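Practice problem: predict the structure.
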Amino acid sequence: MKYIIGLYIVALSALAACGEKAAEKPAAQAENSSGEVFKFNKTSHSVNPQYTLYGLRHLVMNNRTYAKKYAKKHPEQWAAGEEHFRRAENAFQTDQVEAADEAFRSAMEQYQVILKAEKVQG
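Answer:
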């Protein structure tokens, strides 16, 4: 019984410590080249405009994984999506926020064309 209570106390203290560390870190914000905070408010029929760049990138990568299965059936859309994805990744790696956002959204639209044609929910 002492062992279980001890584990419970250790778990609670670990959770409290994690909460304190999370509260200390400021929320990540994307900045454009002039140093001002960039708001991702571009519109797209397939991507919620409120996504952060990291969230958008993650969503595109997931859809890319699903769409890759059908790439041979839709070579034009796949090639266009991959070109946009390459440009987006290059811009993302070099902190070109606006270019990355636009290219990720374009890639997502191409991958969505493939997935909608195959009726896959990604």
